[in-house]
């Protein structure tokens, strides 16, 4: 009986690892976005210190009209998706050396995932 439970548990865990099930919390991400909102709008196409984030998913980096991007970001050929945002949010200057973004990054993966989940809901 214990072996069966172990096998079922391993199958379930394997399924979770290979699936796209997200346990990210958009509400927690909304609170984390408070660190971002001084520089970025997510609900209107207006730039602040940073470019707006409206419809960021699937968008090429450094294309918002009227915002002066670093050459590093202009030449990055990044398309913003969950993976590129995850790496950028974790450490912008490491992911794009020469970026003008002054944010040091989020170190906790769950916070990054929560923020991305919020951005998916709030920006599209």
What does the model show?
This protein has a single domain, classed as Cytochrome Bc1 Complex, Chain D, domain 2 (Orthogonal Bundle), CATH 1.10.760.10. Helix 2 crosses helix 6 (109-122) and helix 4 (82-90) crosses helix 6. The chain has helices spanning 2-18, 26-32, 71-74, 82-90, 92-95, 109-122. With 124 residues, the chain is mainly α. It has 6 helices and no strands.
Helix and strand layout, with pairings?
Elements: H1 2-18, H2 26-32, H3 71-74, H4 82-90, H5 92-95, H6 109-122
Report the structural category.
mainly alpha
Number of domains: 1
Could you state the CATH homologous superfamily?
Cytochrome c-like domain
Number of helices: 6
Give the ordered list of helices and strands.
Answer: HHHHHH
Q: Please tell me what the overall shape is.
A: elongated
